[in-house]
Amino acid sequence: MRDRRKPFGSPEDASSLPEVDRAPDEQSERKAVEITAVRLLARREHSVEELRRKLSVRGYSQASIETVLAKLEAKRLVSDDRFITSFIHHHAQRGQGPIRIRAELRQQGIAANLADAALDEAEIDWVAQARVVHRRKFGATPPSSLSERAKQARFLQYRGFSSDQIRAVLKSDTDAGLDLDP
C-alpha cells in the first residue's frame, strides 16, 4: 500500500511547528527586506510609500516591510523630505514645471501639503525655467501666428507650467515681434 503522508515542507507541516522554529525565518526575511531596501536606496532616493510598493511587489510580508521601513526611517536612510527635494530638482532640470512635478509627487505617495511646501521653498524661478524650455523647443524666434502661439502654450502647459508662467514667456516673445493685426 502507498504511503499517503504529506511531503515534508508542506504548509500543513509549517503550521504544526512551534513558534520558535519559525522565528529565524522571520528574521532572515527581515534581513532580506532590509538588504533589498538599502540596495534600492543606494541607486536613488525613494519615498517611503514608493519603497513600500516595491518591496510588496517582491513578495515580502507586510509585517517585515513595516518593521524594516520603521528601522530605516529611524536611521534616516529613507526620508520623504530628502526624496521630495531631490525629485523637484531632478525634474526641474529635465524641464518640467511645478504643476507636473506636484502631480508626479502625488503619484509617489507624497501628501499634497508637503509637495506644495517643498515647491514653494525650492529656489527655482519657474518663469525663467519655462523660458529655457520654450527656447530649447521653439528657438528664439517669436510665434508667427495665433495658432503657433497656441501650440507653444499647449506644449508649456503639458510640461507643467501654469498659465501665468506661460503668459509671461509668450508675452515677452509676443512683444518681440508677433503682429496680431491683419
Topology:
Elements (H helix, E strand, L loop, with lengths): L10 H6 L2 H25 L4 H10 L4 H13 L5 H14 L4 H10 L4 H10 L4 H13 L7 H14 L3 H13 L7
- SS class: mainly alpha
Order of helices and strands: HHHHHHHHHH
Radius of gyration: 26 Å
Tertiary shape: elongated
Largest sheet: none
Q: Could you describe the 3D structure shown?
A:
The protein is mainly alpha-helical and 182 residues long. It is built from ten helices and no strands. It has helices at residues 11-16, 19-43, 48-57, 62-74, 80-93, 98-107, 112-121, 126-138, 146-159, 163-175. α8 (126-138) packs across α10. The longest helix has 25 residues, at 19-43. The radius of gyration is 26 Å and the shape is elongated. Residues 8-22 and 176-182 have low confidence and may be disordered.
Quick gist of this model?
The chain is mostly helical and 182 residues long. 70% of the residues lie in helices and 0% in strands. It has helices at 11-16, 19-43, 48-57, 62-74, 80-93, 98-107, 112-121, 126-138, 146-159, 163-175.
Q: Which keywords apply here?
A:
single chain, 182 residues, mainly alpha
